[in-house]
Amino acid sequence: MINLEQNKKTITAILPNYNYERYIDSRINEILNQTYPVSEIIILDDASTDNSVEKIKQKVSELHKEYPELNIQTEFNKKNSGNVFSQWAKGINLASSDYIWICEMDDSAKPNFLANLMNSFCDKDVMLAYSNSKLVNQNDKPLLKDNLRKLKDFFRKKHSFDSYTIDGEKEINKNLAVYNSIPNVSAVVLKNRSVLDDYLKGAKKYKLSGDWYFYLRVVSDGKIHYCHKKLNLHRIHEKSVTKKTDLKERFSEMQRIHEFTIKNYNLSKTTKDRIIKLEENLADSWL
Question: Disulfide: which of 49, 50, 222, 241 matches 125 by Cβ 3.0-4.6 Å?
């Protein structure tokens, strides 16, 4: 049973879903079994074509009986939004807790995921905390020998593999200005603030890289915490393998974000040179 008294910092778990019926039970159960409890669950379905809506309704009915003190909200789109960041915005606008965890329905988390990340918010200046991730397929089989953060860093710029808390502007200059060093939104916990809605309006202008833009805006307001433990499992499906046309669009969006960071942040010459080098390297393989 959830004991909300032990949780002074309340957390809303937002679960966006689209055709992930097979994961609904296990995902919700693992969220409720976190050693640091959530106080609210918001389940969003973006006009799924499988049996997701019926599955969600059945699960919520069960939860009302088992967890009568838990606030549960559901929103079912009749038409697909066409943009995942619209769903993020909807969930955040509905959330009433101090902190937000956007839990993609097909991802997974270790039971101590929240307990590890919430410690970082003892520093009131921390706006975003995230953990390392493992990359798995739809059957939970590892896709990489190394973790996802390490793979990203290998191709960009390696830095500390230990946990750290750092000023957001420094993290932008060191990593986020160059590439999206945060592997997956399910690995992230955010401080709930009204300004998040404005940041997501900007994110919705991107199809593939809105999360990167969103993280840049969020961490520029304060500090960011990284937990080196692999507490999040990010699931990649066969149908989501990136196509050549997607790479071209991703490259274009990357350039737009690079232009944004150069214009809006005080980047060192070294960071600007890394941006140029990365674009040159990726142009050869992506275009």
Answer: 222
Collapsing DSSP to helix, strand or coil, 22 comes out as helix
Q: Which domains does the chain have, with CATH numbers?
A: 4-240 (3.90.550.10)
The dihedral sign for the CA sequence 237, 241, 245, 250: positive
How far apart, in Å, are the Cα atoms of 179 and each of 176, 249, 256? Answer: 5, 15, 12
Query: What are the helix (H) ranges across 2-51?
Result: 24-32
Cα–Cα distance for residue pair 269/114, rounded to 1 Å:
37
Confidence (pLDDT) at 2: 43
pLDDT tens profile 224-251:
999 999 999 888 766 654 455 588 899 9
Q: Which residues of the chain have pLDDT under 50?
A: 1-7, 148-149, 151, 154-159, 241-242
Partners of 41 in the β-ladder = 13, 72
DSSP output for 65-80: HH-TTSEEEEEE-SS-
CB 125 within 8 A of CB 193: no
Percent helix, percent strand, percent coil in the chain, to nearest 5: 45, 20, 35
